[in-house]
Amino acid sequence: MVKELLENFVPQDHIGWLILIAILISFCVSSTSFPAIINVAKSKNLMDFSGGRSSHSGSVPNLGGIGIYLGIVVTLTTIGAVLDTKILLLILGGVTLLFFLGLKDDILILSPRKKFTGQLLAAGLLILFTNTRIASLSGILEIYIMPYWVSVMFTLFVYILIINAFNLIDGIDGLAGTLALMAVVAFAYVFYRYRDISMVVLAASIIGALVPFLFLNFSTRNKMFLGDTGSMILGFLIAVLAIRFINTSELSSNALYSNSSPILVLAFLFFPLLDTLRIFFIRLVIHKKSPFVADRNHLHHRFLFLGFSHRQTTAIIVVTNCILIGITFMFKNWDINWQLAILLVSGTILYSLYFLYNWLKGGRKTLGA
């Protein structure tokens, strides 16, 4: 009977139930695992201690990525049987590889070279075995179909960029997790429009795992951090969603977002990418040091210096990025180069408001003196 049900099951006819079940399973697994993870972290002293460039006080467990990993993996292995098993298994393989690399880094510290190698391997497996890659830029700067190896190398670059962008912005309470949640919800929407059930369920499993984590991340009593485990997993999965979305949109000129998918991806991930490129410029060009040497030059640190709390900073950044996404959707049918120009101009203006605020605040102080 079960075999007959599975053989006759059509996921597209039950997408609402699949989303709900995926969120519930992931939420339940993650929320029930977090207390145990916190207890183990405290008993084994696996904590993130304040000091140096840290923006928090006291000691906090930094193994939140374990609960997120468990929620996503259990969800995909239970529901995945009726979906695109091949790509989900490869995604789980890549996530598991990054999970163990991140876990080792959170506990013992791992060299950047080993993390970079693991990221390349996880991304390379998906690209080669599923051929899910960015084959063109949809006419951005008149770039259309790219040669195969150029496409593969560019897709690998995008994976590494997104993974490390989420790793770098994980500096204050809720920022990386809330930005990830915002991006995943946006991807869930566009994949729902495409009826790509496997990706919608993947997005739902991430949402279900992130919600209980964010509750703890914002908490003052049982606080928990993502750690490198969580930030790398989230960055990798969001990169998977981004590249799959662009790839799906490129397959047909009649696809709903065929003329805007790269721009929408940039909008969904604008702040992590902007802050990462900004930080790399400051470290390489201005300070003449390795881009992987930690400092307090991130935009969220600038907000903290102005007196904003962690929650206020996260809210301002996420709301700003949501506004940018809304603007991008408004112009999604325009010429793609105009879309890019509007995105860059509006994004620059929105994220420059901080500097304007800082300048006005400084000016008022000077006048008051």
Automatic annotation (TrEMBL):
EC number: 2.7.8.-
Alphabetized GO MF terms: transferase activity
Name listed for the protein in its UniProt record: MraY family glycosyltransferase
Primary location: membrane
Membrane topology, as annotated: Multi-pass membrane protein
Parts of the chain that traverse the membrane: 15-41, 62-81, 87-104, 116-137, 143-162, 174-192, 198-218, 225-243, 263-282, 303-330, 336-357
PROSITE patterns listed in its UniProt record: MRAY_2 (PS01348)
Organism: Winogradskyella rapida
Location within or outside the cell: Cell membrane
PANTHER family, sorted: PHOSPHO-N-ACETYLMURAMOYL-PENTAPEPTIDE-TRANSFERASE, UNDECAPRENYL-PHOSPHATE ALPHA-N-ACETYLGLUCOSAMINYL 1-PHOSPHATE TRANSFERASE
Keyword terms of this UniProt record: Cell membrane, Membrane, Transferase, Transmembrane, Transmembrane helix
Pfam families given in the database record: Glycos_transf_4
